[in-house]
Amino acid sequence: MSLFVRIFALNAVGLVAAAALLLGPVTVSTPVLPGEALTVLGGLAVLLAVNVLVLRVGLAPLGRLGRAMADADLLRPGARAVVSGPVETAALITTYNAMLDRLEAERAASAGRALSAQERERHRVARELHDEVGQTLTAVLLQLKRVADRAPGDLREELGQAQEATRAGLDEIRRIARRLRPGVLDELGLLSALRSLAGEFTTHGLTVRHDLRAGLPPLTEETELVLYRVAQEALTNTARHSGADRAELRLRPVADGIEVLVRDNGRGLGTAVREGAGIGGMRERALLIGGMLTIGAAGEGADGVGTAVRLRVPVKPVVLLGAGR
């Protein structure tokens, strides 16, 4: 029954009851007698109670829809309002859910284009850093060596310092280029790239252990890149913000796909979690490959509970041609 019919029927019942009282044997004296007043007030109370009940039941789905709209987050897709209530309300909720489907699809498509453009730009900048700036610094380093070989003794120390500064700048350029575009991922695969990543973040203040299991299902290039970028961003956040001295990087197959986990023994997320561009970027990348990203407490650490970043990606089984023959 629609909300319109319900309210109309309730109002009609009230008007019919009032007309029956006026045309029936019930009369109202002047002044009003106590019994007559109780009868009128009792009938009014019954009508108001039924009205409140009908409106509460009829408008409850709208309240649930409002809460669902307030909690909607396109970075956490899949949540939908429950379709219930009168015909008009159910149609409104169905339309809202369909709108969310379109928005999530459009956001995923636009995010995919943006991230693809970002990766192309990273690749271009990394190539220019490696080929142009790197070669220039290498030439400067060789020139300094030739000058140092012919320079008098009192200048050799200063030239040596200039060589060390140039060599350090060259190493930094190469490190930035590797972070912009992990060549090891293209050349040696995901496992080697993650091992290299763990070694890169292992410094004097942070030790990163890795547990990278072989026997992974076949992965697309896009999936491997997303897994690498999520691990890279999680370790970056650990090194910059967590205050941890130990971290762990895991990659393993699970029942329905593959999972990458980065956790540390730092101070944890705290009570108020404000997601910045880094976490938002990880969620965007996870959506591109249909993955589920969760961020929570790791449950370890002496001074804090730590943080765990987990990305689980479903992987479709590969059907081999001719299997079963």
UniProtKB/TrEMBL annotation:
<keyword id="KW-1133">Transmembrane helix</keyword>
<keyword id="KW-0597">Phosphoprotein</keyword>
<keyword id="KW-0067">ATP-binding</keyword>
<dbReference type="InterPro" id="IPR003594">
    <property type="entry name" value="HATPase_dom"/>
</dbReference>
<protein>
    <recommendedName>
        <fullName>histidine kinase</fullName>
        <ecNumber>2.7.13.3</ecNumber>
    </recommendedName>
</protein>
<feature type="domain" description="HAMP">
    <location>
        <begin position="56"/>
        <end position="108"/>
    </location>
</feature>
<keyword id="KW-0418">Kinase</keyword>
<feature type="transmembrane region" description="Helical">
    <location>
        <begin position="38"/>
        <end position="59"/>
    </location>
</feature>
<keyword id="KW-0472">Membrane</keyword>
<dbReference type="InterPro" id="IPR011712">
    <property type="entry name" value="Sig_transdc_His_kin_sub3_dim/P"/>
</dbReference>
<dbReference type="Pfam" id="PF02518">
    <property type="entry name" value="HATPase_c"/>
</dbReference>
<dbReference type="InterPro" id="IPR036890">
    <property type="entry name" value="HATPase_C_sf"/>
</dbReference>
<keyword id="KW-0812">Transmembrane</keyword>
<keyword id="KW-0547">Nucleotide-binding</keyword>
<keyword id="KW-0902">Two-component regulatory system</keyword>
<dbReference type="InterPro" id="IPR003660">
    <property type="entry name" value="HAMP_dom"/>
</dbReference>
<keyword id="KW-0808">Transferase</keyword>
<dbReference type="Pfam" id="PF07730">
    <property type="entry name" value="HisKA_3"/>
</dbReference>
<dbReference type="GO" id="GO:0016301">
    <property type="term" value="F:kinase activity"/>
</dbReference>
<dbReference type="InterPro" id="IPR050482">
    <property type="entry name" value="Sensor_HK_TwoCompSys"/>
</dbReference>
